[in-house]
Design brief:
The chain is mainly alpha-helical. It is built from 9 helices and 3 strands; from the N terminus they run H-H-H-H-H-H-E-E-E-H-H-H. It has one domain: Iron/manganese superoxide dismutase, C-terminal domain (minor pseudopilin epsh fold). The chain binds manganese (II) ion (MN). The site of manganese (II) ion has 7 residues, from helix 1.
Length: about 200
């Protein structure tokens, strides 16, 4: 059985950037549905996933029997992506990374500000549902990418370390059609110490 992370803040603590009702519905309804559907899809297939983390399953998605593979991509990706998204948000975020991670950001993008601009643009321009995403490859190189639907970067052998959910359910109650305002505001609650932790893992 796979599960969602425990939310490290209360529903209203991300205000005014993300409203309490959105956090509540997103976490308890949308994410919970992915959890339920993932576990349902895996029912009877335990031998294929025994002892594996969800991220390991997504990384080796071709090992999953074809008849349930698309369900695992959709719902397993939904759980993994959301767990990352919710875990990097914080009401008291570190506003900048440090050390080796910051050096790599500067080397790759010029500065943290330039990385944020690139990632903002990727998130805003993602056509339809998906994510703007910062990943690292096997050599710890950083890449900004877009992800459609609930596809997982793990299945492309990339490690996601920051994901901005741009499905409408992530922002529509407060921002309506103004995805750009939501993405620009989310930088106020992205905890770079958490992203750095994933980079250093
Ligand atoms: Mn979502």
């Amino acid at each position: 059985m796979y599960d969602k992370i425990k939310l490290p803040y209360s529903y209203d603590e991300l205000e005014p950037y993300i409203d309490a009702e959105t956090v509540n519905i997103h976490y308890n309804k949308h994410l919970q549905t992915y959890v339920n559907n993932l576990n349902k899809a895996l029912d009877g297939y335990n031998e294929f996933v025994k002892g594996k983390t969800l991220d390991e399953i997504l990384y080796n998605i071709e090992d999953i029997p074809q008849e349930i593979r698309q369900d695992i991509i959709n719902h397993g990706g939904g759980v993994s992506n959301h767990n990352l998204y919710f875990s990097i948000l914080s009401p008291k975020p570190a506003k900048s990374p440090k050390g080796k991670f910051l050096d790599e950001i500067n080397k790759t993008f010029g500065s943290l500000e330039e990385l944020k601009e690139k990632l903002t643009s990727a998130a805003i321009k993602q056509f339809g549902s998906g994510y703007g995403c910062l990943v690292k490859d096997k050599e710890n190189r950083l890449i900004v990418m877009q992800v459609s639907n609930q596809n997982s970067p793990f299945s492309d052998k990339l490690i996601p370390i920051l994901m901005i959910d741009v499905w409408e359910h992530a922002y529509y109650l407060k921002y309506k059609n103004l995805r750009q305002n939501y993405v620009e505001n989310i930088w106020n609650i992205i905890d770079w110490s958490k992203v750095e932790e994933y980079y250093n893992k």
